[in-house]
Amino acid sequence: MTSELRGTRFSHIVGFDDCPFSRDHRGDVSFIGAIYSGRRLEGVVSGKVRRDGVNSTRELIRLVRDSKFAGHLQLVMLQGIALAGFNVVDVEKLHETLGIPVLVIARYAPRREAIRKALLEHVPAGARKWRLIERLGPMEPLAGIYVQRRGLDREEASAVIRATAINGVIPEPLRTAHLIAGGITDGESRGRT
């Protein structure tokens, strides 16, 4: 384990975030995974998922399993529970299939009732997607952000967040994925993670 992450059991982490897209966009949306070994960016992977679709879990599993980094990865971080709008990740299945912990991170607490209403009234397969969110439970405040987690306890989650949040409160694998995603889509990165 690298000295930068002493106190955690996670030295190899991938953080995923989706690329920006317009409100009227239909079809596939790209997403980026930034892979870190300690505090060093080790690699980048990319994939595509359907806007408001149902293939995010399958694509995340494929991307991690098929990457040359698969044998070393110890933790998956997600910037929110969905990619490409409401393509909700089945975090339980992701964790169980890959056999490594998953940590979902958000800067702010989500407005659960607004999400439920949007899913049930406007999104294909919305009821199924809402059940995935409900099954994971509400986000909990931790280390200055909000998290949901599988395969790691609260203390481990706090330690890895604090060890990897080098430039603010968002862990570096997610911050880097966000910057790369913006740069690819818009020609330059912008905004906060």
How many DSSP-defined strands? 9
The helix fraction, in percent, is: 25-40%
**What is the H/E string?**
EEEHEEEHEHHEEHH
How large is the count of helical segments?
6
Overall mean pLDDT stands at 93
Overall SS class: alpha+beta
Descriptive notes:
The chain is built from six helices and nine strands. By secondary structure, the chain is an alpha+beta fold. The strands form two sheets. Strands 3-2-1-4-7-9-8 form a seven-stranded mixed beta sheet. Strands 5-6 form a two-stranded antiparallel sheet. A hairpin with a 2-residue loop joins strand 8 and strand 9. Helix 3 (112-122) runs antiparallel to helix 4 (126-136). The longest helix is centred in the C-terminal third of the chain and has 15 residues, at 172-186.
Give the helices and strands, then pairings.
Elements: E1 12-18, E2 28-37, E3 40-50, H1 56-66, E4 75-79, E5 82-83, E6 87-88, H2 91-98, E7 102-106, H3 112-122, H4 126-136, E8 140-142, E9 145-150, H5 154-164, H6 172-186
Parallel strand pairs: 1-4, 4-7
Antiparallel strand pairs: 1-2, 2-3, 5-6, 7-9, 8-9
Helix pairs in contact: 1-2, 3-4
Name the features.
9 strands, single chain, two-stranded antiparallel ribbon, 193 residues
Briefly say what this structure is.
By secondary structure, the chain is of the alpha+beta class. It is built from 6 helices and 9 strands; from the N terminus they run E-E-E-H-E-E-E-H-E-H-H-E-E-H-H.
